[in-house]
Structure prediction request, 773 residues.
Amino acid sequence: MFDLLSMRFAGVPVFYVVPLVVFLPLFVTIVWRVVGLRDMLFPPPEIKEARERLKEEERAEKARLEEKRARAGTQVKMRRRVSLGPLQWAGQAVTYALFAVGIGYFSNAPDYAAMAPDHALIKVSLSHPGQRKEECRKRTREELMKLPPNMRAPKKCSRERWPVFFEMELDGTLLYRDSVKPAGLAGDGHSNFYHTVAVPAGSHSLTVRMRDRGDTEDFKHVFARDVTLQPEQILVVGFASDTGTITLR
Amino acid sequence: MTSIRRPLQTAFLFLDGLFDRPFGPEWNPLRQMGTLSFYLFWIVAVSGIYVYILFDTSVAGAYESVEYMTHEQWYLGGVMRSLHRYGSDAMVVTMALHLTREFIFDRYRDVRWFTWFTGVPIIWFLYVSGVSGYWLVWDQLAQYIAIASMEWLDWLGIFGKPVANNFLTRGSLGDRFFTLLLFIHIFGPLFLLFIMWIHVLRVSQPRINPPRGLAIGVLLMLTVLSLAKPAVSHPPADLGTTPTELGLDWFYMVLYPAFDAWGPGAMWALAVGVSFFVAALPWMPPLKKPKAAEVHLDFCNGCTRCFLDCPFGAVTMQPRTDGRPFEQEAVVRPDLCTACGICVGACPTSTPFRRTEKLTTGIDLPDFSLAHVREITVKAMEKARAEVPETEPHIIVFGCDHGVDPPLVERPGVRGVRLPCISMLPPSFIDFVLSRGGADGVLITGCRECDCFNRFGDRWMMERIAGERDPYLRERVPRERLRVSWAAPTDRAKLEAAVERFQGELAALPDTAEEAPRRAAGGA
Prediction:
């Protein structure tokens, strides 16, 4: 089987070379023909002549101005061009060096502690639709007949759903609690949770509760488990809609 | 606002002076921040194209391909990667200094509002381009900032499901989403370039390339830095763990620690609030704008000099409307005119020698007319003459609103005349002052070289004196009686020293004493 991705030539993966093979000729053609490198390096005779003519005109203009200035006996200097002595070159080198040191240093230093190294991260990430605010009911025959033939769904369901309520405790301490409204203008989408919280690594007792109705205080889904978290580990608390269970990953 | 700007101006002028010593006015990088930003963009673009050739756009191969170019092909791929990083870092610095400088020197209001306003999206696109580049390395730093960036976007609630879910667990991130990140990094810079083009669109004669010497210096500096301290990656990303210690690129990621501390809502408020505030700055507080220049068609022969010299493109030429035998006439767009008077100085009819009842010129400022300039010049000449004996040198100092105030360097025999911009002074005024025996010498001053508030004032003036630009200074004007000393508001001592030196030089000229009787008689 021809597998370009794993092929190597002289130890270098071939796929590194493929873009070069494809783009380099294109790039060279563009630079050579379109940008005009060819005309710059090997100018045709008419361009050569035009350039010579231009140079001659420039020389004449410069000489005219020089003569004019000399005739005027000007003592007013034109733009001050610094005569770059060793001190000026050294000054420039120091300036560039300081700038380079600044850029080089702050491009990856000082270090930032995004999280304490003895902590783990718990992420709550779940997407679940709340229950409909009104239960579906079967349409009567009369109702169905009033509808256009292509819209005669046997059940009538309200679009609006309840917000989903979620809370999480670690060792009896509340870590996160939120109630999320359904997405969508009509409030008929999923309630999406995304939340992260850093906790000390080690063994903990994790309790998660969730309800998807607003007309009751009872939690439909409750999950409790002892977990051992390694430093820097990520534990994702989710919800499997197909089985209706809270999951840990 | 002025009280905020004044001390900052002093600090910037001090730094300018410091940088002038090794670089000179033309190469001074502090005055080239805009052009350097453009130049750095090209360095980053070219190095980015090379890096892209070696880059593997899959999640599994991205890190390895970057490692390959960094370590195996360090001499080219590694240098290009480092140039790509350091060039974009330097661009943040040049952009920030450019913005700060324009604010401090009050070059963002009035006709400049458009350029300032379009600079705000440039900041956004530069950050989008820079941050999205870091995602692609797909190391721990990429993991941290990609997730933080997505959490920041998710706060808006505009996506069906949180985008951060793409980084939830090992295996969550697919090649398709990773390719999307790559597209952001390609289209971000393209939009950035587009906005940069818009940014300078309304600038007359914009400069987008730094002086060659400075360009070579910057490229050399970045190359040496790339070889001395090549850009390297963090350990590869692992979505099963969370990175703790990170070497942030503080130029692009300075707000991420704040994001961790304050959360996405506060960061959106900060980003949007600051953007709106900065974008609204040109209108607060309201600017008292002088009246725009006016064209007097009876004196306009359509020579186009005002059109060519206007630094803000406020003068345009149109076919003649008054039936006079000229092809064109000048028209002023009041919304683009800053009333700097450069057009007045360029007009061939702006001459103080004319003996008409009222001095009128082809284009003039209603609030600061050429007649007024002649009036205050004549007064200054009379005052200078009255103060010291005729045998001692008299000097007229012509200056501008944005350099040292000329009256500040006045002393017996020396009088100052202040104009909106030094290029408002037609060269014929120098001739007028010297040939009418009003003074023994004329000293021209204004903003420091290459730092004119009105962009080209110093340049046009020098070219007119040197006979390289219309209207020329007549050849009969003795150049030994003319001096130029550019001086920012903080350079008063320097200008005073120049005046004193000039007085001494004039006194030493053989004909200064001989001319005294003629001056006493009131000129030619």
Q: What stands out?
A: The longest helix of chain B spans residues 74-104. Chain B has two domains: 32-283, 307-520. Strands of chain B lie at 245-247, 294-295, 315-319, 328-332, 363-364, 395-400, 414-419, 441-444, 482-484.
